[in-house]
Amino acid sequence: MSPKESKDSMVVTDTRSTSFSGKGQQPPQRLLGMALFIGLALLLSAACAPRVTQPPKPAPLLTEQTPFGPSMTLAEMLDQSLRTQYRPPNIDFPVPDQMAHSSSALPQRSGDYFMELSRESVTLHLASDVTAYVLGPSASSSGEAQARGQTDDIPEAGLAVGHANGDIHVWSSWPCASLTLPTAAPVTLLTWDGVGPFLGAGNARSGELHAFDLRHCARVGTVPGQHPLRHAALSSSSTWVAVTDTGQRLFVGPLGELFANPSNASPVLEQDPRRHVGTLRFPPLALAFSPREGLLQSVDQAGWLLLWTLPDLTLLEQVRIPGGPFGAALFHGGHLILGPAGIDQDVSPTSHDESRPEPVIWDIPNSRAVAAEEILTSQNASSTNQGAPWALLHFFERFNLDAGLLTFRTAQKHWLRKLHFGTPRLSVHAADDDGLLRVTEPDQTQRWYQTATGRPADAPDHGPTRLTPLAVAPDGTVSWNGRTYALADPVQTRDGYVLMARHVPEHRFFLWWMPVEEVRVSMDSWILPDKTDLLPIRNSLIQDSPPSWISLSDHRQPVGDMQ
After folding, report:
1. 314-319 long-range CB contacts below 8 Å, 24 or more apart?
2. Own/partner pairs for 61-66, CB < 8 Å, 24+ apart?
3. Distances in Å between the alpha carbon of 382 and those of 68, 366, 389, 547?
4. Which residues make beta-bridge pairs with 97?
5. Distance (Å, whole) CA 499 – CA 416
6. At what angle are helices 372-381 and 389-397 packed, to 10 degrees?
7. pLDDT of residue 212
8. Which has the closest alpha carbon to 314: 364, 366, 249, 269?
9. CB atoms within 10 A of CB 555
């Protein structure tokens, strides 16, 4: 073969080779395939390389993006419930139904009614399908006081509510708003000291107790179920747990990972992580660890207070507090507050009822009972971050759980509107010998007024010898001895009707519609308010004496003779 033929053959061979290997593709695409192969090899080598172990982090069970919404303090929740369930009353209610009557020029009213506005303590519905709840005396992550709502003077506290489906709702200054039990069993056992972020929850029958961290909505420990439980307590840093079973036996031990780490436990607990400390004499009311976890405290219905030292679990003191039996107990700081058994929940804790037994306040370090004034003075003189235990006890008494419905009774009074059928009955009698008028209100209470000034007066010591009944006009005016007295005042007019309002000391208003034609006073002499939420208060019944006006929406404290 000549050199020329050999060169041509090489060219042909090379062309065929290129055409076969590339199959019509251009050289840059072949380079891309090689780059892809190299990248794949690098990924495989990286996958085979040793990985760096990351420290475990608590995994949130529920976050703020859950349907339950973001976290909310207890004061904010109560204020929101009040504004939602008891909106400011509107006095601009409809006029009575009218129907034509052929024999009378006046409109005949069918379905007459009148309204009553009163200031009362109200009951807020907080949650339904509730199986357990616990109040934390001081649930703040920063030590600062919570924002005060308009519901009441709410102390710094937190509330956790357990439901039958295993859900737990939390209202506090911690970021966690909701949790759930891993077993989805009904929540019948809750414990929370309120100082730390650790909440204990479980099912009392199964005996299993779970510890949750409210900073991360994460479960950080579990006490295995061995016996049905009645009470439980977690220390503020979740180091210790104490439980009592249905046999009133007390078990104490370290929590969570400390069970498997003997170096963190005492010599006694290394052998038995859950030590049977003893059996309580009577059903327990409360278990609590001291804030620095140096003591375990227990109190029962008979008033027996027992103290154990930690970590050796030596019985330090046992004393029976007089004044029992008790129905409620609250450990707070260095004090124990015991509420008497059998207290009626409907009785306001702020009332001064002499028949109501007073709570017992026990100074734990000094082992003596102290007066309420002493503990209030010491709390006010020191720090107000944790609130007075006396106020906390009264605050806790206003919560009530009945048939799965958790309610809260407000201490302050709020405006309520009530409907009554018919027309309000006002009657007036004159005691001319005493210079007094006796007015019988629509609520059948009686009040006395001076005939000369129209101002309120005390009831006479002796019964009047003669009472003269006086005619009361539909607009509430009464005439006697040349004077005209006004028991009610016009508030607004609409569709041929005028709205009359009668202020009943100390806390009520009665309002009713009546035709303008039945009003004795000329409308030209009326000075009606521009706003529709104003109501009149009379310091004198003399008609020429103008009333003062209050606003229901702006007014939040008792006014005038409501003090």
Report:
1. 315/278, 317/367, 319/367
2. 61/179, 61/180, 61/217, 61/218, 61/219, 62/176, 62/177, 62/178, 62/179, 62/180, 62/217, 63/217, 64/175, 64/177, 66/177, 66/178
3. 38, 18, 13, 46
4. 110
5. 18
6. 120
7. 92
8. 269
9. 16
Q: Is 43 helix (H, G, I), strand (E, B) or coil?
A: helix
Strand runs labelled E in 432-488: 436-440, 446-450, 456-457, 468-470, 477-480, 483-486
Q: Which amino acid is at 485?
A: Y
Residue 277 to residue 314: CA distance in whole angstroms: 9
Closest CA to 211 of 233, 195, 226: 233
Backbone angles phi, psi at 536, to 5 degrees: -90, 145
DSSP 183: T
Q: Cα dist. 232→123, 139, 211, 298, 522 in Å?
A: 30, 18, 11, 11, 72
**What CA–CA distances, in Å, run from 58 to 61, 90, 218, 241?**
9, 50, 6, 20
* Residue where the block lists tokens 């009945």: 402
Separation between Cα atoms, residue 124 and residue 414, nearest integer Å: 12
Tokens of 296: 């375990």
Sign for the pseudo-dihedral over CA of 133, 206, 198, 329: positive
Tell me which residue of 552, 513, 556, 515 sits closest to 536, measured CA to CA.
552
Please give the Cα distance from 442 to 283 (Å, whole number). 50
Average pLDDT of each block of 10 consecutive residues along the chain (563 residues)? 45 37 47 61 54 44 47 88 83 65 45 83 93 75 37 71 94 90 90 86 89 90 83 87 90 65 38 75 90 89 93 91 88 84 52 62 89 59 47 81 94 86 88 90 90 91 84 89 91 85 86 83 60 82 88 52 29
Question: Can you give the pLDDT at residue 45?
Answer: 56
pLDDT at 411: 85
Strands 130-136 and 123-127: unpaired
Q: What ranges make up the beta strands (E) of 215-300?
A: 218-223, 229-234, 240-245, 249-254, 275-279, 284-289, 295-300
Please give the C-alpha separations between residue 312 and each of 183, 289, 435, in angstroms, as whole numbers: 33, 14, 80
For residue 506, whether the previous peptide bond is cis, meaning omega lies within 30 degrees of 0, is: yes
Structure tokens at 188: 């019948």
Question: Which positions ≥6 away from 145 have C-beta within 8 Å?
Answer: 156, 384, 385
- What CA–CA distance (Å, rounded) separates 106 from 497? 11
480 burial (CB, 10 Å; 0-12 / 13-18 / 19+) is: middle
Distance CA 157, CA 180 (A): 21
Residue owning tokens 């409809």: 94
Q: Is the sign of the CA dihedral 408, 414, 418, 424 positive or negative?
A: positive
Predicted local confidence at residue 249, as pLDDT: 92
Q: Which residues contact 310 (CB under 8 A, 6 or more apart)?
A: 240, 289, 293, 294, 295, 296
Task: Report the alpha-carbon distance of residue 179 to residue 59 in Å, rounded.
Answer: 12
In DSSP terms, which residues pair with 514 in a beta bridge? 498
126 membership: H or E segment, kind and range: strand 123-127
